[in-house]
Amino acid sequence: MTPAARAQAAIELLDLVIAAARDDGAAADTLVARYFRERRYAGAKDRRAVRDLVYRAVRAWGDRPDNGRAALLAVARQDPDLAAWFDGSMHGPAPIGAAELAAVPSRLPGWVLPELSPLVDAAEQEALLNRAPLHLRVNSLKATAEELLRHWPEAVPIPGTTHGIELPAGTDVERDPAMAQGWIEVQDAGSQIIASACGAKAGMTVLDLCAGAGGKTLALAADMDGEGRLIAADSVRDRLARLAPRAARAGAANMIETLLLDPGREEAALASLEGRCDVVLIDAPCSGAGTWRRNPEARWRLTPERVARINALQARLLRVAAPLVRPGGRLVYAVCSLLEREGREIIQDFVSFDPLWRPVPWNGRGRPWGDGTLLTPHHDGTDGFFFAVLEKPC
Ligand SMILES: C[S@@+](CC[C@H](N)C(=O)[O-])C[C@H]1O[C@@H](n2cnc3c(N)ncnc32)[C@H](O)[C@@H]1O
Q: Active site annotated at which positions (predicted)?
């Protein structure tokens, strides 16, 4: 493909990505794969170059652009080589019109900006869209960080984590024997820090209320040395199903029970745990705004209405979880979001409704924020998270 044809392909793909984001259709990665399946003439270099253009455009636009051409032109504004490929050649895009370069998009959606924590300054906003590093958690049930640092001499320990190591981006860990042996999990340092903040220990009863495919469940299992009762609950069967093979690989299958919840009827399924849990973790469903560096296209799918719906669910899950904690036990609330209403404000409301809950100070990575802690990409090198650790009165 000529460079101009690559630019045209990127425009066509961006049109598809924009339509899918608007209509809740397939993810950008799926669309890219499908596009090239139907265009076998494109070689590996072409595919890489087009994909790169598509994602540069996605990262440039906080709000969903009108069309693929406008999306790519925002990249061309700062890249004279790309601008030159708008040459009107047979397979290339039409030349750029005088007025077309006027739009300078914001990298974050306009409506999100006033919702962000004030700690999210310009440097944080920039970092929220930069490429994410590759973080691993060493599974202490099977291996030590020292062993993995020997296995990958290019790896470095992640400050502020107990078992985190960072590898150069692009390292193929999925096919490395360390993965098959269950020595490691791919997990952002922020998630590792939140699991540590739960303070789970051997012999405890711990509920991971929104366990998904078990990223944090497995970290909790390791902190519990594989001993105790660990319940992984979620309302989506497919997500919970993905936990079983991971738990087996990690050597934690014996201690993990899974519990499928019926949304709106969680209390009944959890009644037997009332007042019994040493720790309840609510890794709540959220906007995901803290993970946009991994999934920038999600900005184009999020709406204020969607955040309002999720926000109501977050408040309800706090009410479901609170009675399950034993006196003196911990309730840990976390979101991968830097929106005030999903983090600081929701915990402020919860604690003001029931002021006996005592916020437990966190001395690790992150910045104190309200009754919790904010982890951010620029300050902490993590995805964006808010978490709060609350102790139930005895
Ligand atoms: C942020 S994700 C959890 C990620 C997971 N803890 C991890 O570390 O990989 C939030 C999860 O909440 C689940 N969820 C949504 N509504 C729920 C409900 N009513 N009860 C329990 N889980 C729910 C979603 O299915 C999703 O898996």
A: 336
Query: What is the spatial distance between Cα 122 and Cα 369, in angstroms, rounded to a whole number?
Result: 18
Q: Is 216 in the pocket of ligand 1 (CB under 6 A)?
A: yes
**Residue from 210, 277, 286, 336 carrying the catalytic annotation:** 336
CB 190 near ligand 1, within 6 Å: no
Query: Looking at the predicted complex, does its ipTM rise above 0.85?
Result: yes
Q: What pLDDT sits at residue 190?
A: 98
Q: pLDDT (tens digit, 9 = 90+) per residue, 34-90?
A: 999 998 888 999 999 999 999 999 999 999 999 999 999 999 999 999 999 999 999
Question: Environment class of residue 393 by beta-carbon count within 10 Å: exposed (0-12), middle (13-18) or buried (19+)?
Answer: exposed
Q: Which CATH number fits domain 190-391: 3.40.50.150, 3.40.50.2300, 3.30.930.10, 3.40.50.300?
A: 3.40.50.150
Residue ranges for the binding site? Answer: 234, 262, 283
Between the CA of 333 and the centroid of ligand 1 the distance, in Å, is: 12
Could you tell me the distance, in angstroms and rounded to a whole number, from the CA of residue 285 to the centre of ligand 1? 5
pTM: 0.95
Q: How many whole angstroms separate alpha carbon 61 and alpha carbon 302?
A: 13
- Of 349, 342, 347, the closest CA to residue 360 belongs to 347
